[in-house]
Amino acid sequence: MARYAKPAEGSWTEHYPDLGTGPIPTEDSISPEFFELEREAIFKKAWLNVGRVEEVPRTGAFFTKELVVANTSVIIVRGSDGEIRAFHNICRHRGNKLAWTDYPGEEIRGNCRKFTCKYHMWSYELDGSLSNVPQESEFFDLDKDAYGLIPVHCDVWAGFIFINLAEEPEQSLTDFLGPMVLELSEYPFGEMTERYAYRAEVGANWKLFMDAFQEFYHAPYLHGGQTPSKFTHMIQEYGFEAPFYKIEGPHRVVSTGGVRGEEQPIDMIKPIEAKLRSGLFGPWEHSTAEDVSVPGVNPGNADPWGLDSYNLWPNFVILIWAGGWYLTYHYWPTSVNTHVFEANIYFVPAKNATERLAHELACVSFKEYGLQDANTLEATQKMLESKVITEYVLNDQEVLVRHLHKEARDHVRAYRSELEGATS
Question: Using an 8 Å Cβ cutoff, are 112 and 62 in contact?
Answer without folding.
Answer: yes
